[in-house]
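Quick entry between incubations.
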Amino acid sequence: MHARARAKSTAFCRRISRGIQLRATALGAAAFAAIVIGTPQLARACSVCTAGRDEESRFAFILTTAFMTILPLVLIGGVVWWLRSRVRAHESAAISVSGAPDASTSARAARI
Amino acid sequence: MQAVSAARRPPIVANGALGMLIFVISEAMLFAGLVSAFTIVRASAPIWPPSDQPRLPLEETAFNTAALLASGILLFAAQRRFRSQRAAALRPLLLALVLGVFFVVFQGAEWVRLIGQGLTLTSSSLGSFFYLIIGLHALHALAALALVASAWIRLRRDALTPGYFATAAVFWYFVVGVWPVLYLRVYL
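Done. Structure below.
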């Protein structure tokens, strides 16, 4: 009888503590959401956020964003394209000189 | 077997030149970031350039730009001559070097004049961006000139390899190529 009462009270305490934990989690999530939504407006952390108010600066933002997005793609793409064209020229020169696909290929074929 | 075939094959691009290309790409992004920031600040300013600041020397710098472009062309000519006859590349390479030195010295003289007229790093956002962007370019120009000068010395000693020459040339082409963009954005 005594053991059953103790088990009941333990289960009750656990339920309460779980409820408190859930409530604390919900409160924590709500506080985090409030900070995430509200703080940037208060802080104005971005140093140029006050700039884009007129049409000219809005256009500058869009232009520079596009520029900064496209430039690395163009640069890396250009280097890859140039390397590819050099490899092709190299291979075609090797074919025309040796009459075989490549000196290394023929050497490999001889060993096989 | 693969190691043997790799040893027989000449490299498609010299290691130094490829490394320099990758470095140049990262530097291009650095300049792009600075020019973008300058463009936004310029577009947001009610009056540009600031009324109390001196005007940037457009005509003199246009002349200096022509000297730098000519230097790039001469380096290209030197590279072409180097492939056929090494000794013939000495003169265009030296001329390219001299024009590059002229560009840096001329820029330095312009800076001294502008500082005297009141355009300093802290006088306005124009001064801050001008000295930051153009100064960074001048640093790159000095480093590239040192590389081209060492290539010329090696060529005189008949010790210049095509890979070393290509590495120096890639850096100098970057310095020459980025300058017109800076001139158009910062000066005009």
